[in-house]
Amino acid sequence: MAFSEDIGEQDGPLSGILVADFSRVLAGPFATQQMGDLGATVVKVESPAGDETRGWAPPERDGVSTYYLGINRNKYDVVLDFRDEGDRAAALELAARADVVIENFKPGGLAKFGLDYDSVAAVNPDVVYASISGFGSKGGASLPGYDLIVQAMSGLMSLTGDPDGPAYRSGVSVFDIMTGMQATVGILSALRHRDRTGEGQHVEVNLLSTALGAMANHSSTYVAGGTVPFRMGNAHPSLFPYEPLPASDGEIIVVAANDAQFRRLAEALERPELADDERFARTEDRNRHREELRPLLVEAMSTRTAQEWFDVLTAAGIACGPINTIDGGVALAERLGLDPVVHVGHGDAAVPMIRNPISFSRTPARYRSAPPALGQDDTLIRAWLDEPDADPLPPLDAIPEAGTHA
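Predicted structure:
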């Protein structure tokens, strides 16, 4: 695969990897943004109508959906209409040159265009081809894979909300994001296998399997323990305290996840006798007797404000924290020196975005271009695909106009 030999001046652990991104909405674009941050050259392929998230507004920034902006930096962009013979040929040529192809059409949906795994592998046998779906490529192939539906059908919503109230979705599309992460893990693992053997392969991930794995201890409660868990509000099924507790002016999250931590908490609350009470001495005892312990903790915490308890408990080595809105979370990361916001792009087109969460001592993430306008790189990409022996695409940050958005 000629493209992967040399990518020029791009740095990063994935330098030299070309990604043909046939995905849209969230899981796939999230995965390819992660790869782009780490040095891969990502070519985002859109239909003439564009990625649906371009129109998911408000909220928006300069007329562009913030949803789209949040997951599409570090990408070239080309419009290809798979219904057009010439554009199909261009898409197959891109896939033939790519190290990685990623798509989230319904299973089998790309076969009619000759862009499915078998068709691509026939011209690019060492390709790593990743498919993302809602419910897999077997019995659930025809089911649409929306995060909300998977939250409902997987059981997550039965775990979210007050015990006596209705089920709630998570405030974040958790399984889309997690499935994007799983796709990235699968792709990187397959690339490692290819490094050792020269073999490409088909990587498949789906939202339902991700959901069942991500519910970890709750899934295990059923499959290993034979018990179906249900929602407990903000409480934890196996730990107490591990939830918000009311101070004099509002709630604060308090965690005492083992016996030593609970003893420190009892001492900080000036109720050291609680740690010696046989009902509360061990983790399992506190869990079984939480209805007796909780009012005692509430009574002790009623004497100070949430901020005062945060200072006292933190000094005592107790995990705790206020319930922030997102602006508070960003502000906290700034205070902690995590530099959560980066400005991506050039001049007036620069977009404030959340930093990639991975830190590397030698090959840090780079923020080379803002999320692209629809088809902004059509001329460049089409010319490159038309030239059989073309040099690798130039680094995104070497193109002054790259990363503008509209």
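Summary: Residues 174-197 form the longest helix (24 residues).
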